[in-house]
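Progress note, project year one: complex with uridine-5'-diphosphate.
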Amino acid sequence: MPEPTAIDFLIVGAGFAGLVAAERLSRAGFRCVVVDRRGHIAGNAYDAIDDAGVLVHPYGPHYFRTNSPRIVDYLSQFTGWHPVDYRVKSFTRGRYWSFPINLATFEQLIGREATSAEFEAWLAEHREPVETPANSEEVIVSQVGRELYELFFEGYTIKQWNRHPRDLDASVCGRLPIRTDRDDRYLKESFQALPAEGYTRMFERMIAASPGLEVELGTDFREAGGRWQWRHLVFTGPIDEYYGRRFGALPYRTLRFEHESFTADELAARRGISGKDGHWQPEMQVNYPDPEVPFTRIVEIKHATGQDIDASTIVREYPKDWTPDDEPYYPVPAPDAAAAYARYAELAATEENVSFIGRLGTYRYYNMDQVTAMALKEAEKLTARYASEL
Ligand code: FAD
Ligand code: UDP
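Model obtained:
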């Protein structure tokens, strides 16, 4: 076995967390190596052209959004943007509903046109106020009452998490906006856009801009660990895995993705449903809250990417509990899971030369912009700490 090669940083994971940290640290003059056990960069944000020629998000739809101009400025060094107003529908009681809840949803519920004032009065009558919502049931029922909660949230949440909304943090269902005007955009943030040529291309440019950065794909940390001798390790994989699950596995939810592609002729035959040629369904995402339907949502990402292609691909998402053969897509945002994570976080806090960042490294239900912010902050801290050793 040859001697390990000395480097400044070994970075485990080539997703948002790992590559943003790697870019910053390389540009600061450190020698960095990134390893990822998957055969591609970009982590769960990876996008690629499928067999039908459609640009897809194989690990579920990734809608970039942020309120932070700093994050947009940072990423804009590596990509242009394709602005998107992400739009979603919910399918229940045999029909498509305007979603997230807004005035049009209310009009569908009562079967006639209405005003915002009428909807507000209806909500005032139906909501069950609580001062500080403690869980995902309370956060929705306190805003819209039980009927709309049961229609759109209860069944979907139980399928997605295999837990009752009562047993999940308020922030889970509280992510979704509820509006009394006609704004039906799915997200709340001020900046909503996709990287113009996709996430993978954005990260290729980020790597190209990182002097001397080496990226090893198809490489697990356990294997790479013997070949590199690092000053500091940045770990963006699951924190419980790093510690050999010594306090037990943390709970994760995972997804099975079922892809289906359609030709132009097949899509034309669905025009009455999709409302336009070249598409299978009316919006980029349709949520299915009904318990009888085994999947949670169908995504047709072409609506969002705006790709000019006759074919289209849809992806159905089937949630399930994580096993060691699965990708751990979602940390579970709930008090018991947070308590289990706290034991690992305590160990992590004693590490001198290891940083844990990212959605899995810190066991947080974080979006891409939040992970970017975390990686920028950690890179700044590490640069200051090791600057004198350059
Ligand atoms: P990841 O992207 O998971 O990267 C971690 C990488 O580490 C992986 O590639 C993994 O292979 C690698 N790794 C782990 N362990 C090891 C090891 N031992 N050795 C080598 N490599 C290892 N965010 C949004 O902002 N908008 C969205 O619309 C959105 N939609 C989502 C939909 C789904 C279905 C999912 C699952 C997530 C979604 N997210 C979304 C969240 C987004 O994916 C994350 O915020 C972001 O990708 C996290 O980046 P990361 O680098 O922390 O983790
Ligand atoms: N949710 C729901 N009904 C919906 C959409 C979302 O009950 O139609 C709840 C569900 O618990 C979900 C959470 O709101 O996990 C956040 O939804 P989002 O679409 O942001 O989830 P993600 O894209 O992260 O899977």
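Residues 27 and 95 are 52 Å apart (CA to CA).
The two ends are 28 Å apart (CA to CA).
No further modelling is planned for this target in the current period.
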